[in-house]
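== Polypeptide entry ==
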Amino acid sequence: MNLTHDQITTKNEQFYNEKIDILKSEKATIILFDGECNFCNSTVNFIIKNEQGSSLFFSSLQSKAGQKILKDNRLPADNKSILFLADGVVHQRSEAVLNILAKMRRPYYYLVLFKILPLWFRDFIYNVVAKHRKSIVTKKVSCEIPSPQVLDKFLM
């Protein structure tokens, strides 16, 4: 059976919508990131290499899956902040970063101690880094061919 491009696209969208719904029902942890930012892509690679276990899933904010998650959570489609979705709760900015750190191996896990700092101060630091993130890592990170296990962690 030969499928047209539109039929394949529709089947892919259905697959990813079902996958998102399953992940949400299982209360999976999803990290949304700016897929157009080299710093953000480097950060995702770092998280994958240093996470405890294998419980994190990823989606770029610009992907169809990312846009669906934003819409489902009544967040603006042009959001550029890192988001951490767990147990039906969306964490943004420094709260998202601290929740990610809590899922990482030592020594990075210990950075959650920064939670003692006031939220306004942590978000101020986050906003400074976010404002300059595209100049922090300017070179395109070399593309690794991900293993099937890593590829399965991404929602397109």
The two ends are 25 Å apart (CA to CA). Helices lie at 5-25, 38-50, 64-72, 93-101, 119-136, 148-151. The mean pLDDT is 80.
